[in-house]
From TrEMBL:
Residues 23-277 form the EAL domain. This is EAL domain-containing protein. Signal peptide: none annotated. The keyword Transit peptide does not apply. It comes from the Bacteria. Keywords: Coiled coil, Membrane, Transmembrane, Transmembrane helix. The keyword Lyase does not apply. The chain holds residues 757 to 1035 of 1038 of the full protein.
Amino acid sequence: AKDSGKNRYVVYDKTMHTEFNERLHLEKHLRGALENKEFELFYQPQVDIAGGQISGFEALIRWNSPELGFVSPLAFIRIAEDSRLIVPIGEWVLREACRFLGDVQAKKSCTYKISVNISVIQLLQDDFVEIVLDAAQESRIEPGCLELEITESVFMESYERIVGKLERLKAEGFRIALDDFGKGYSSLSYLQQLPLSTLKVDKAFIDPLTEDAYSQTFIRTIVALGHDMGLEVVAEGVERSSQLEILEHTGCDKVQGYLISRPVPEKHALELLNGPGNG
Ligand code: C2E
Ligand code: CA
Ligand code: CA
Ligand code: CA
């Protein structure tokens, strides 16, 4: 029965009930979090494999709630999306990350880049392109230094509208990365349909990299494919030096992962730039 869903009794078990309450609870606290300045951005360095130097950072949100303690983005981003709170939160992330990069460039060098995770809900906003332009201008950063990380979820709704916006942003000079490539249902056809600059290969492809000969074939093929399409290829979740060695051989452009550094607070991120090889 196709239309019977709405007014039907829903029999749910206790675990569902608990989950539902937990979501409501989180959402309640999430509502005031931006205003109460409970969010902070952490920054995880990306290293250029050939040069061995930090080329930029990915901004990752952290929520320290006075009532709930530290809450992982894995636990609240989805709720922020469902409640649309991700719109103001995401705008704050974008402006704060640009502000950080502006400072880094002023103190260090203008070649550093920043990557920011963008939710599909943000992309659906009419003023998204203007907000990105404004955030970059406000912090005096070149569009080419700001990379927007999107996932294949952009294919779930209003695909045409979203691709139109991504094309405008790409034309303005901003970089677009496809995040989590290889995770879940990623399809090769996505690579052709989106105006991409970068392919971020998911940790799931990096994890088995030392034990398994096939995984080396996969990663080599993905890097070659990305390069053929003119994309930069970044490996995520690199934890062991043996993985980095294999990635070097594939010609992969950049690495990000605990091997280099965990995501760290702003002050610590700046210190990383003073480290060996990053003068
Ligand atoms: P993501 O965009 O795929 O970010 C990478 C995640 O992997 C981060 O988790 C990072 O801390 C973690 N990671 C990095 N290197 C390693 C490693 O070597 N090993 C392991 N085990 N993990 C590593 P985090 O910060 O907890 O973020 C989780 C997810 O939450 C992100 O996945 C992203 O989807 C989302 N997220 C984080 N910040 C934002 C944000 O500002 N906006 C939006 N829309 N989503 C965000
Ligand atoms: Ca990401
Ligand atoms: Ca990712
Ligand atoms: Ca992700």
